[in-house]
Amino acid sequence: MFYRWAVALRNRCYDLGILSQFESRIPIISVGNLAVGGTGKTPFASWLMTRLTSLGHRPALVTRGYGSDEVLLYKIRNPGVPVVVRKSKIEGVAQAAREEANVAVLDDGFQHRAAKRDVDIVLLAAEQSTEGSMLPRGRFREPLNALSRADAIVVTRKVATEEAACALGRLAIGEAPEAVLGQIHLVGGVWTELEGDPHVEAHDGPPAGDLLAVSSIAEPDGFHEMVRSRASGVVECMAFPDHHPFSHKDVWRIVNRAAGRSVVTTEKDAVKLRTFSQELPRTYVLRLQVAWDFGQDAVMALIRQAIEGKSFARGNGLSDVIA
């Protein structure tokens, strides 16, 4: 209860201008959520940076780097994009501007109100309930009505049906009727091999036979269901805590549990398990891809307007510069 009151008081102070916000000379696009983990933030932010790059922009990813696996994954997925890791996200955005980025993608930034965002995108997972306790007892950072601050709401789904995702979207837009609504399907894309180039598809495609699915992510059930839907044999699941730092002892447990079977894992876990590739049985990595159900054009139009508006303000000396 104390946490809820503290969050409400802090937000009220920002709403009233008692707590000030710093504005960057480059636009800030925040990708965040209400809950801790499991919404598909990393693949979505990666997709967004790829899209911005294809449109001729120079994005930079700004993160506090809580999970080193996420930082490494961003660097693998977006090799030409600077990844700025700073405890202060304001300082991170300033560094991104100094490195000549013209737009900052703020990782997990919805609750970081000290930096004024030009577009606030909030992700909601269709597999997660909107009911539950707030931190520290539960997984929610803010209640559902915090969506009223969002500029865009993107519902993500892995194994949930499109109908279930649409129902969540209707609930969310009720809290933020002026927000843009989009929906994406995080689908299992290509398979790669742990020992190989993470950008090169495995030559023999999905692994055959019985498998051991290893993960250390917030919502492992979605990954396990994806593997089961693509496997030809029986899939056994072995889940570790979110962001788990794998050790030699863990690898020994995986090898013994696999008992000669091939192993499949997530992209996030692959960046940590690659160190042990010589000790593990043949291990495949399932790469997630973003497929829009609807809303891509509306979300990108919102971002384009923000970038163009910030560029105009900067060109006319109207922006309060922090970098």
UniProtKB/TrEMBL annotation:
GO term, biological process aspect, one: lipopolysaccharide core region biosynthetic process
Enzyme Commission designation: 2.7.1.130
Single Gene Ontology MF annotation: ATP binding
GO cellular component: plasma membrane
Keywords of the record: ATP-binding, Kinase, Lipid A biosynthesis, Lipid biosynthesis, Lipid metabolism, Nucleotide-binding, Transferase
InterPro entries: LpxK, P-loop_NTPase
Coiled-coil regions, chain positions: none
Pathway entry: Glycolipid biosynthesis; lipid IV(A) biosynthesis; lipid IV(A) from (3R)-3-hydroxytetradecanoyl-[acyl-carrier-protein] and UDP-N-acetyl-alpha-D-glucosamine: step 6/6
Stored HAMAP family: LpxK
Protein name according to UniProt: tetraacyldisaccharide 4'-kinase
